[in-house]
Amino acid sequence: MNLNVVYSSDNNYAQHVGVSMTSLFENNDDFNNIDVYLIENNISLENKNNLKLICKNYKRTIKFINFKEFSNKPKLNIGNSISISSYARLFLSSMLDDDINKVIYLDCDSIINSSLKDLWDLDLSKYFVAGVCDTVSDETKLKINMELYSPYLNAGMLLINLQKWREERVEEKFIKFIDSYKGQVFHHDQGTINGVLNNKFLILHPKYNSMSTYFSMSRKEIMQYYGLKDYYSEEELKEAINYPVFIHYTPAFVNRPWIKGCKHPLASLYKKYLGLTPWEETELIQDKRSIGEKTVAFLYNHLPFKMANGICNLIFK
């Protein structure tokens, strides 16, 4: 059984690709082959060699795709008001060989905590993409002309039906959508995916994208904070916390595990896999969040949710 995985990164996040990729290999030895495709933007030769070494150690393959070269193609003429590289995952059906019909896209700020076999085996024939619902407000949906009742995916982990993307010329639809917003789609490529593929995707269990919010808020608090009318059940969120398949280190109030002071309860897993990479001696970096961001995080991390929420509403009204 073969698994196709895609990451996208610049040189600043090469270490995190290495950590995520190591966790992928460590927990997915039931696949005969794992082919990693890394869409890269100015990753140094040293970091590329480190990533190659990881793959060699696990007898897996990696192919680097220079997105700068790809972005020069005329059909990607989406203006200069945005960073084209931030839209890389939208063009996978062109960037990858035609015989690759399905891929899993993974954000590199992540740990793969168990096997992806059940996810990979899902029947995606009727859908363009599968993913986990994000915690976004009604305002976010309205900004890309979505119905308020429609689910909105977090694009950090996506199972993508490339065959269907090619058959339905989805890339062209993405470009038209971006152009209609003059190159400034809210939430960038994630907003584009949701705006174009609205109601054409398969909703997955939250364990396939366990975002930091799950670990710092209850279901009730998540719904109140983001103004959600519905979300996953308590039971589903509990499983996503206790048995996550894909741990997504979104900043939230806990920050990320390579930053000093991170309060994510599973930060140790990042450090565990970091220790298996050529970056094992790398030190944690300073927290560069603004005073306002640090203040909000402090309040929600140290006060009861209702009190923290009330104070923030007063301060930031």
Automatic annotation (TrEMBL):
Q: From which source organism is this entry?
A: Metabacillus sediminilitoris
Q: What Gene3D superfamilies does the record point to?
A: Spore Coat Polysaccharide Biosynthesis Protein SpsA, Chain A (3.90.550.10)
Q: CDD domains, alphabetically?
A: GT8_A4GalT_like
Would the keyword Signal be found if you checked this record's keyword annotation? no
MF-aspect GO terms: glycosyltransferase activity; metal ion binding
**PANTHER family xrefs:** GLYCOSYLTRANSFERASE 8 DOMAIN-CONTAINING PROTEIN (PTHR13778), LIPOPOLYSACCHARIDE 1,3-GALACTOSYLTRANSFERASE (PTHR13778:SF47)
Tell me the protein's name. Answer: Glycosyltransferase family 8 protein
Matching InterPro entries: Glyco_trans_8, Glycosyltrans_8_dom-fam, Nucleotide-diphossugar_trans
Assigned keywords, A-Z: Glycosyltransferase, Metal-binding, Transferase
